[in-house]
Amino acid sequence: MSEFLEFGAEHLPYILEGLPITLGLWALAMAIGALFGLLLAWARLYGNKLIYGAATAYVEIFRGTPMLVQMLFIYLGLPEIGIVFDPFTAAVIAIGLNTSAYQAEYFRGAIRSIPRGQLQAARAMGMSQFQGLRWIILPQALRRVIPQWSNEAILELKYTSIAYAIGVSELTARAEKIGYETFMFFEVFMLLALIYIVLTGTVAQILQFLEKRTAIPGL
Amino acid sequence: MIVEILITQMPYLLHGVWVALQLLVCLLALGFVLGLSLAILEVYGHWTLRWFGVLFERIFRGIPAIVLLLLFYYGVADFVDISAFTAAVLALGLRSAAYQSQIFRGSILSISQGQMLAARAMGMSKPMAIREIILPQALRLSIGPWTNEFSSEMKATSLAYVIGVVELTRQARYIISSTQGNILAVFAVVAALYFIFNWLGNWGLYRLERKLAVPGFEQGGQG
Amino acid sequence: MLLQVENIHKRYGTAEVLKGVSLNVVAGQSKVIMGPSGTGKSTLLRCINHLTPPDQGRVLVEGVEITSANLNKMREKLAFVFQDFNLFTHLRAVDNVAVGPRKIRGMNKVAARDLAMRELERVGMVERAEAYPAELSGGQQQRVSIARALAMEPKVILFDEPTSALDPELTGEVVAVMKQLASDGMTMLVVSHEIGFARQAADEIIFMDGGHILEQGPPEQLFASPQHERTRQFLSRIGEGGAGA
Q: According to the model, what pLDDT value does residue A116 have?
């Protein structure tokens, strides 16, 4: 045990230098996912046949295939047609596009769960369809979606580790490097597991706190 | 040219699918047995078991799949010889158990108390009541959420690539390095194979759900 | 004495729901327990087959005391009919009735099914034997649940307000089945406010109030001349006895 603590104390700083990269990947990907997810949800709810079809195909494809394959496609495949990304950008795009497909479904479900009367009331007081969606439906839907969205955010935080497969120097890559330097793989990956448990636990707490802060009675 | 390569390489890709399927079946089976046991112990067992179950779930849901794979392969290999495939089954199977136990526990808890009460009132022991009355209902209710878990683990098999299990994604890498190029085409085909795999699984589970459906079940029991 | 209930006490937190209740039921008798809501009638019934373990007191069936060791064996002799039926949702009517004989009494599949069909016949539910609970009306569900109780060939059936979850127009079919059982000589202990059943089928009415048995006696006597003011009040409120009769 004390050996493990010593090992941890020695190598923790190096591994934790990857934390900003992990968090950066996560935050950027979640932001892309939220924006693009909202757009997709809108397309599937209010778009014409073509837009609906395209958005549906996108969601089905990204939810039906592994994120690792998507990431390798973007990082290794796209250069074939002249689109080159550095590993970090490729990872952000891959995780962001992947999570947008899931977030789209959560947003769509939440928007649909708002009673029709809300939009009718907005229209009755003279709002346009868009204004009604923007100022009445969306704020309610976003509050409702928070629990699912938090779940998704924590899943994606764990999935950022997949970026290690294309050489992003985040937590996992750094831990593996220590592993090859010391050949103490068990210790280093135990340490890494602990880091992720603390990280996901902390983020979950913060999201839960925010969820309580934004709660509205009856919603 | 690309088509020719894809056709000659198809047997390798299909073998990759076969390995992924084996991995998926093994990890889901481990997750099912362990997850269902955990769920039953958490609902009906002593509080220490409940506590153990919560801890198990917290740990295995808190660690990324990749880290578990690395831990069970490189980490465990420090002590015992373990094949990459076995390590993948253990790492992903234990993680799946944590997710599956949550599914089963939710289903068990959603069954009305009256069902257990009626079973006990007619003289069934608790284990018999769980086996004959609670589980047949809870498992039916679980098929829907379990389909999501199937889908998520199907995709997770691709992560076994990082510890060198020669499943579909790793086969794709081999083909790309041996034929030097065709990356987009190979990954597109690989993605299509995963998509079909996933679609078939979801379709089969949906059929199963329909086949086992009992009127009035959607409401989650009586009383 | 078929069923002996001795000095049952039960408290929830600070509230003492049963304050020492004793009663006996002879084979072939049917007794109806009445009283205002919240007086512990249902709790008493649940204490009798230990669905709710009593804090104190004993229950004996054919002279054998129920203990934690013989609990399941004893419950086979004490069938229970619930207010909200609690039919097993995933089983067809006939399987709801057959599951006990098959799994608990170890009958083979064919014999259990035959028995189940006979019991369904007794409650007039043969035609719906293959229906799932969700496809049956409340009254039909309750009749199946009575058949399920009968299939265990119990010594006593405990009825916990068997008609109170039913729409008024559906209570008749259940009461008719219960009357038939009583006249067939089934031993029954019934918590219910069904006056029709109490008058025509009960050998004795037990009036409970505040966790006690206040008085008991044959229905004609208890309805015509109740001894206690509380009984009188209760009977006049449910439109029976006292000045109303």
A: 86
Residue B222 included in any domain: no
Which chain B residue's Cα is nearest to A171? B67
CB contact under 8 A, C49 and B121: yes
Rounded distance between C-alpha atoms, residue B153 and residue B25, angstroms? 10
Nearest CA in chain B to A166: B162
Q: What is the DSSP letter of C66?
A: P
**Structural domain count, chain B:** 1
Provide the domain limits for residue B165. 2-212
Residues of A in contact with B66 (CB under 8 A): 161-162, 164-165, 172
Assigned domain for A191 exists: yes
B47: CATH = 1.10.3720.10
**Tally of domains within chain A:** 1
- Sorting pLDDT into bands at 50, 70 and 90, what band is C241? low
Domain containing residue A47: 2-214
**pLDDT beyond 60 at C244:** no
Q: Residue C75 is nearest to which of B115, B121, B140, comparing CB atoms?
A: B121
CB of A182 within 8 Å of a chain B CB? The answer is no
Assign residue C191 a region: left if phi > 0, alpha if psi is -120 to 50, beta otherwise?
Answer: beta
Return averaged pLDDT per consecutive 10 residues of chain A, 219 residues in all: 86 94 97 96 94 97 96 94 95 98 96 91 88 90 92 96 95 95 92 96 92 80
> Chains that contact C by 3+ CB pairs under 8 Å?
B
Encoding tokens for residue B162? 């990082």
Task: Using a CB–CB cutoff of 8 Å, tell me whether A159 touches chain B.
Answer: yes
Q: Domain for residue B217, yes or no?
A: no
Cα separation values, C175 from C84, C123, C142, C190, C241, Å: 15, 11, 10, 11, 20
Burial class (CB in 10 A: 0-12, 13-18, 19+), C156: buried
Does A219 fall in a domain? no
Judge whether B198 is closer than 8 Å to chain A, CB to CB.
Answer: yes
C157 beta partners: C79, C188
Domain of A146: which CATH number? 1.10.3720.10
Cross-chain Cβ contact B118/C82 below 8 Å: yes
- Asked if the structure places residue A9 within a domain, the reply is yes
Query: CA of B205, closest CA in chain C: separation in Å?
Result: 19
